UniProtKB/TrEMBL annotation:
Keywords in alphabetical order: Cell membrane, Membrane, Transmembrane, Transmembrane helix
Organism classification: Bacteria, Pseudomonadati, Bacteroidota, Flavobacteriia, Flavobacteriales
Principal subcellular localization: membrane
Location within or outside the cell: Cell membrane
Name of the protein in question: LysE family transporter
Keyword Repeat found: no
Superkingdom as given in the UniProt entry: Bacteria
Membrane-spanning segments: 72-90, 111-131, 143-165
């Protein structure tokens, strides 16, 4: 039973982390610009952020979902942040020149990109709901299972982002003088598309 809990946390995280998101794209960008070892720092930070989101969902349950449903402005704000991040990446060539010497912790970057994501928080509320209703599992009853579940969450996030890092390695091998700016534009377009989809979802549903 304990191993089932671990793999449930692992697979749930992989499924949730596979679609392109801010942390996924940041890993690709860092791998292309630097190397996969540097992008792993973002992955570890994002893994910690994912664990934090899952723990908040576990602790608060439906209160979290009801809170976001009552305060839609938070989800609109998230969509706006994604849009701004998209514009940032599209124009990042000029920004990088100005801020070249600026210190930036990749661990903190990964954590921030992961945790500022209300839809993922709601996703974890649904995951715990499935655990309790469909499988009859209460993590509170399994002290070791409790820790293994969140270990699965961390490893699932890191493993998924590592696969994105390997994709970045492939892009790096084919790197041309214009590939960096092209990658920035691609990341920007994806983030702005996610922002638009989130806004349309809130307005239509």
């Amino acid at each position: 039973m304990i191993l089932i809990i671990f793999f449930f946390g692992l697979l749930s995280t992989i499924i949730g982390a596979l679609p392109p998101g801010a942390s996924n794209l940041a890993v690709i960008k860092t791998t292309v610009k630097e190397n996969i070892h540097e992008s792993l720092k973002i992955s570890y930070g994002a893994g910690a952020g994912e664990v934090a989101l899952a723990f908040i969902a576990f602790s608060s349950g439906m209160v979290v979902q009801e809170f976001f449903e009552m305060h839609l402005w938070i989800q609109f704000l998230t969509a706006g942040i994604l849009g701004i991040a998209g514009v940032y990446f599209i124009k990042t060539k000029q920004i990088e020149k100005r801020d070249k010497k600026k210190y930036n912790s990749k661990y903190i970057t990964g954590f921030a990109l992961s945790i500022i994501n209300p839809p993922v928080l709601i996703y974890w509320v649904l995951i715990f709901s499935v655990l309790r209703s469909s499988f009859g599992l209460e993590l509170e009853n399994y002290s070791l299972g409790f820790f293994l579940f969140f270990a699965g969450v961390f490893l699932g996030k890191v493993a998924t982002l590592y696969s994105y890092g390997k994709l970045g390695t492939r892009i790096q091998k084919k790197k041309s003088p214009t590939s960096s700016s092209s990658l920035n534009r691609m990341i920007g377009v994806v983030l702005m598309s996610l922002s638009l989809l989130q806004t349309m979802k809130l307005l239509l549903f």
